[in-house]
Amino acid sequence: WFRLGVGDSALYYFERERGNYPGRAKAYNNLASYYLVNRDFDSAYNKLNRALLLRPYDLTANTLLIRIASADDNVPDQELTEYISSALLQTDSNLTVMLEAATIASARKLYPLAEQLLRRSLELPPPPVETDDLAFDEAYPYRPDRLRRLRAQASYQWGFVLGQTGRFEESIAASRTAIELDSTFAEAYINLFS
Question: 0.85 exceeded by the pTM?
Fold first, then answer.
């Protein structure tokens, strides 16, 4: 219902999920997402805080924390930066969370922060397969092909940031790197043409 845009039904079932599974962080993540989309930031923070209490290391919850703080016009840049630091600390600098944080920092024109995160994301090794619970899942985000795609996204975003700050030669190099990593990544071509 949420994806179909039927908010009342989505909220009803999300609340049922929370009632049936009050110890499950996903129920609170879903509610926080619902409230974020509806720009009810107080409710979104409330539900998200519950999710983070249950699973402080949860990737979805920490990503939502950054998204909510970014969407909330009352959150100043310094506070958003603190939310980003907290999310990265809680998720052990997860690459997908880091890329989300860099994109949000770039959208807020916090280019030095975005560049720092993007540099880290390009250098960050994937977690050891022996310690990653997701390693045996079909959707494992660090499979070689997916890791290449994540690195391409980081290079593309870095190229964008470099272009916005007038460092065009470096921007061109970063965009070309993104295309080398994933030749189907259309946004990198658009960035390069721009």
Answer: no
